[in-house]
Amino acid sequence: MQAITPAKSTTCLKGLNIFACSWMRLKIEFEKIPVNFEEGMTCIRAIYDEIAPNVISVLNTAVLADGNLTDIYGSAYQPYPETEPGHLIVSFNARAGGADYYVLDTDYVTYAAVYNCVSIGEFKVEYAWILARANSLSPEELTFARNVFIANGVDISTFEPTYQDSKCVYFP
Which GO terms describe its biological process (predicted)? Predict the structure, then answer.
């Protein structure tokens, strides 16, 4: 379930200087802070493609608990590409507004550490994902990705793996 915690500070992280190209193409969700909107889902992945300068399409797919496939389409743009290239505003299904996502770090080949935070009064709701290009990361790669969050003050004690294996069915 989604964790809402008392905030030592209600200030959420602001992304590091990482280019949006780190988001391009296929990403497999490897670990995350559990979120309500992904409850019961497995085989979660995302496909990112550039559709305009500083704008990417986002297609998230997953397998539901009943075995059916689900997807959600959206887009993301860099509001400040020159000063905050790792900051993306992500929206799904043409909903108004969007959420601030930050690529905290990536090696552009193996993993990306992605973060979002919403302040609610004296509390904050954190979202964090370790995305990978493949269904597995080496122990060293996973430790490195986790350490990105730790270095940015994110508690990783609630991280859970996302089920991914050779039996996963993906679409499209």
Answer: lipid metabolic process; response to reactive oxygen species
157, part of any domain: no
Question: What does the pLDDT read at residue 96?
Answer: 66
Q: In which domain, by residue range, is 113 found? A: 4-152
Whichever domain contains 18, its CATH number is 2.40.128.20
The H-or-E segment that residue 80 falls in is none
What contacts 51, CB < 8 A, 6 or more positions away? 57, 75
DSSP state of 148: H
Q: How many separate domains does the chain show? A: 1
Token pair for 6 = 């008392």
Strands of the chain, DSSP E: 4-6, 25-32, 42-52, 55-63, 69-77, 87-92, 99-106, 111-120, 123-132, 160-161
Residue 166 lies in a domain: no
Collapsed DSSP state (helix, strand, coil) of residue 115: strand
Under 8 Å CB-to-CB from 82, ≥6 apart: which residues?
Answer: none
Q: What is the pLDDT of residues 116-166, one digit of tens each?
A: 998 889 998 999 999 998 888 999 999 999 999 999 999 999 999 999 988
- Which tokens belong to 132? 């990978």
The pTM (predicted TM-score) of the whole model is 0.84
Please list, in sequence order, all residues whose beta carbon lies within 8 angstroms of the beta carbon of residue 160, skipping any fewer than 6 positions away.
31, 32, 33, 34
